[in-house]
# Entry
Amino acid sequence: MAPLKYLQAYPVTLQDKVRELIAQERLGEHLAKRYPDRHEVQSDKALYAYVAALKQQHLKNAPGIDKVLYDARLDVLRNALGLHTAISRVQGGRLKAKKEIRVASLFKAAAPEFLQMIVVHELAHLKELDHNKAFYQLCTYMLPDYHQLEFDLRVYLTWRELPSTDNTDVRER
# Structure
């Protein structure tokens, strides 16, 4: 039984269902039915506006964001689907911190739900740095089906790495 690296923390019963879809070469079809659309947030400017709108809707009192962009260098293999950073610089006699959010560029062609899940995750880090109970409560406050979308996103990443012909139908949309 080959390990599903993106799904290792999930129950074996769920992993077995994904393995069954892979064996039947139906995982891509399953994902296409659940997530038929692709978002239109294609530029860094559009991504910044998208993130700012979500922040304004859910986290009005959180620190501002200085930069938001798609980043082709983010390594999905090390679980970096998105990245939040706070860069501190001394300017004169003052310490200035800039907050950045970077989203892996592979999500330019993903379902809008997946982009929203990544952005919600990174926005939650503005208030909660660690992946603790409060962090996930904040994520589900902003996106009630956050946990299901996180699982489905991990299934999507698993599907993207399949060597079979199953992964051509959804990716090209």
